[in-house]
Structure formats: structure tokens, C-alpha cells
């Protein structure tokens, strides 16, 4: 049935220039029956029709070319402040979306701000009424209203734009017919309440303003629900990430980002303001953390300069390829516990010296107090656990979660050490996940000398960077 409906909808242009008879509503209903829209949906469309709004909806859609949408007003210091608050509030789901789809959290945030101010301005038009109204646009009675509005708005250019208005009326009707097909599918397969769906005059709904066909193709739920709800923020965030990725977004390529945003809205101003806001959010003022401000249990995320490091950063979509754990010694410079060439305690200066040229070490701190008492006792307990269980072990170049070296001591890599050493002290633990090694399987195989441990549990500096329960304090000042 779906294939037949799709085929019929593709043929919907056939009726567009055919003689139109009967009332506008009668013509619309006949068109729906020709392409096989269910009688239940047709009844909903008829019941939802608001005659007093039809000419307004048609005029806004058909004659939209007469005006130029302004998008500069979406950018302001106040807007950036609200966007930063949004980034903080939805940090976890934004981080997941960024990881899964490769679309930056700042870009998703900027788009949702521009679209609906994070859901505060989703539109009040009945979506079913919007498409049913547009379906009537080619009818002579409606066309007269549209051309009259054109004459009133552009009297000196009426003849110039008359044919464009006529052509656009037919095009909008054909488009509406296809979108009604998607509404029909939403109702039948997703259980959507299309009778009470509200959105913009263009038929877009929800926090990210998807039209029905976009909802069916690109909307994604955040959790394990069968169907996404675009009025819920986690679903909206995930859906935007998937939409942009599916339409070619590559974070490192400006042209692909622009193309994906044009697919969302074909307006230069729209694309430019989203990219501008996203860049401003990424360029947020940097906080510096002095050495004396470090505490035992703080995590140091470090960018290194090596071929394996590049693979790690690419795979996990992060700037960091190494992590160390701070131990504060009373009256002394902190030291760092790490798994690098081996599992050992090193000076902060030794740790910092390996930082990639131009790179910065970032400090993470657990949001809740550690389970080890005072700062002094925490340092002692962390160091004692490290010395008794992990110190002197070999570096785990195989990236396996539970493996031992020939001496029987557990082999560890940096993020693995951070989790296994610190989880007894953190109230929000660092959790392993299946590792995919999918960004450059050939590169991983070449560097490791064998196939990587695909789908085996593991943890990366990127996972730690995005972990729930930690605050990014800023860059370490040494």
C-alpha cells in the first residue's frame, strides 16, 4: 500500500493543470481520493478546515517571494546567553548527538534557537488545515484572491509576477498533496494525532519545525520509544542531528554544512546566522585553571601528537587522545597518575611536556564530592589504591578491558586506568561501552598490527570528556 501511495503521489502533478470543477473544498477532496488518501484522514482534514484562514495561508506561502526574510534578529548577546544555558542544560543529549551523528552541539543548539527559540514559538496554525488550504490554491476562487493580494502588494509589478503566482499556486498544491500523504502515513503507522497538530503557516511542527515528510524520514527518538515526539527536547535534538548528517553534514567541511542547512531552509540569511551563532558558542571565553587550584581526582584531558593519537581523536570525535589523574600533595606540586608507556606516577611538568604543539590540557572535575573525605585524605587514598593495584603495570596497546601482562598484572590504557582507579571514589562512575573502530578500520589494523577489538568494552578520552557528572573547569595554566 505504501509503494502504491508513493507512486500515486509522484503522479500528482498530472491533475495540477487539469480543469478544476466544483468548490475549492470539493476539488481538494477529489484530489485526495484520486491518490488514495484514506477516508479517515480526509474526514480529519475536512473537520480541521478553517475557511477564514485559507486565504492568509495561501497568500503567505504563494506570495512569500515578494518579501525577504530577515534572520539577523536571531543573533544577539542575549541569544548567545540563552544558547549557552541550553548547552549546559542539555549537555548529555547534545553530547550523544554530536558523537553519533558528527554534528556539533553548538550547531544543533543554534538551529533550534533560530527555528523556535527552543520550543517557545512553534506556531499556532493547525497543520492539517494548512495543507488542506494549500491544496485548494489552484481553484479559480482561491486563485482570484491570491492574484488580488498580489495586485495590492505589488501593483507596479503585477504583470511581472502574475504567472509566477499562478505557477506557485499549482506547485504548492502538489507539495501539499504529498505532505498530506505523509500525514496520512503518520496517523496510520505512528498513531499521530494529526487533528490537533499545530505548527507554522508552512505546515512545519515541533521544536525543530519538521514538515510531515521530514518527520517520517529523519525524526529519531532519543530513547527506545517507537516514534519520536518533536515536542520533546531530547527527540528534537536527536532528530536535528540525524537530519543534518543524513543530508551530508561534515563538521570539518563548511560547504557540506551549508548544503545541509540549505536543505533545511533555502535562505542565505538562515544558513549564515546559524553558522555564526554556532561559531560564537564554540569561541566562548576560555577559563584558565592554575596549578594550585587542582584537586586530587581531577582529570586532565590532553592532546598528543602521534599517529595513534590522531586515530583516537578521529574515532571519538574529540581533541584529546590521553588522560591523567591528578593527585595533590600537601605543600607540593601535584603529580599525575597515567598509563602511557607504562602505568606510573609522573610530575605535572613531565605530563604537560608531551602536549601537542598548540594544544591545551583541559581540566575536568567531578560535580559531587569524592567518596574519600578531605582533600588531604583523598590524595592519600587515591595514591594508595594506585600503588597497591595498578602502579608498574604495562601499557595496554591492545585496548582490551580485562587483560594481563606476562607477569600477571593488569595491562591498562589511559582511560581504562582513570575508570578503574577512580570509580570507587566518584559518585557518578565512568562506564565502558562497546568500541567500534569504524572511522578508519584499515588505519587501526595497520597501527595495531592486527584487527582492533571491535564491539569489545572500552573507554576513550572523548567518552570521559562527554561523561555525565563532570564539569569542564577550563584549560590548565602551567
Task: Provide a compact summary of the structure.
By secondary structure, the chain is of the alpha+beta class.
Summarize the structure in words.
The chain is of the alpha+beta class and 478 residues long. The chain folds into 2 domains: 2-281, no CATH class; 290-477, endopeptidase domain like (from Nostoc punctiforme) (endopeptidase fold (from Nostoc punctiforme), Alpha-Beta Complex), CATH 3.90.1720. It contains 21 helices and 11 strands. The strands form 3 sheets. It has a 7-stranded mixed sheet with strand order 3-11-8-4-5-6-7. Strand 5 (322-327) and strand 6 form a beta hairpin. The N and C termini lie far apart (67 Å).
- Major β-sheet strand ordering: 3-11-8-4-5-6-7
What value does the Rg take, in angstroms?
A: 29 Å
Q: How many helices in DSSP terms?
A: 21
Percent range of helical residues? 40-55%
Mean residue pLDDT: 91
User: Count the strands?
Assistant: 11
Largest sheet: 7 strands, mixed
Backbone structural class: alpha+beta
Principal-axes geometry comes out as elongated
In percent, how much strand structure appears in the residues? Answer: 5-15%
Number of domains: 2
Low-confidence stretches: 1-16
Q: Quote the distance from N terminus to C terminus.
A: 67 Å
